[in-house]
Design goal:
Blueprint lengths: L1 E7 L4 E8 L6 H7 L5 H19 L1 E10 L5 E15 L3 E8 L4 E10 L4 E7 L5 E7 L4 E4 L2 E2 L4 E12 L2 E9 L7 E10 L10
Antiparallel strand pairs: 1-2, 3-4, 3-13, 4-5, 5-6, 6-7, 7-8, 8-9, 9-11, 10-11, 11-12, 12-13
């Protein structure tokens, strides 16, 4: 559950750094699979998924980030590390992301807002710009706040998939026309770093 570096190959520069942490299944699936369940039960399931996401995020991760051209081909590939720890058990995780090749270090927070039924993450780097990513509790897609592109409202969208206990992938897309079209931004593969106290196993 990790930070992702947003990048726009067409502009040839980073847009921002964003923390990416998603649950394995969506709320819509829960509702459609059992429509007679109460809203409270559905919310409880979604909350459990997001809590498990926070628990899994704690630790150190290695990540390979592929910045993509609009056609999906790879423009550049870099490696980074991400470390997370508890602030409030089962509710708030804090961390640091680092991509040495880009000279990029950021502070991140991942937290659950149970009252609003959302899971949210914020990221801030050396430029002092705070990015907020918001998704439905228990969901697997999160979007950033809008920003001005000159052509229309811009926004980032992240989707997490192929999730296991020690690995997952993330796909970032961006829009610069208010969501009329979405373009490829990057693809990341995260793997839990070996634990030296267990003989190198995750």
């Amino acid at each position: 559950m990790i930070r992702t570096s947003a990048y726009c190959p067409a502009r040839g520069k980073p847009l921002a750094g964003i923390l990416v942490t998603m649950a394995a299944a969506g709320l819509v699936t829960l509702v459609l699979s059992n429509p007679v369940r109460s809203q409270d039960a559905t919310t409880s399931d979604a909350l459990s998924r997001s809590v498990e996401e926070l628990r899994t995020s704690v630790g150190t991760w290695n990540a390979v980030t592929e910045f993509l051209y609009d056609d999906g081909s790879v423009a550049r590939s870099v490696e980074g590390t991400y470390e997370f720890q508890w602030v409030v058990p089962d509710r708030v995780v804090s961390g640091t992301s680092s991509i040495p090749e880009l000279e990029q270090v950021s502070a991140v927070l991942l937290y659950i807002n149970e009252q609003e039924e959302i899971i949210e993450m914020v990221s801030v780097g050396s430029d002092g710009v705070l990015w907020t990513m918001t998704g439905a509790l228990g969901g697997n897609v999160r979007t950033s706040q809008e920003y001005d592109t000159g052509n229309g409202p811009g926004q980032l969208r992240f989707t997490r998939y192929n999730v296991s206990a020690d690995a997952f992938e993330s796909r970032m897309e961006y829009t610069d026309d208010g969501g009329a079209t979405w373009k490829a931004g990057n693809h990341q593969v995260f793997r839990r770093a070996p634990d030296p106290t267990t003989g190198g196993n995750p």
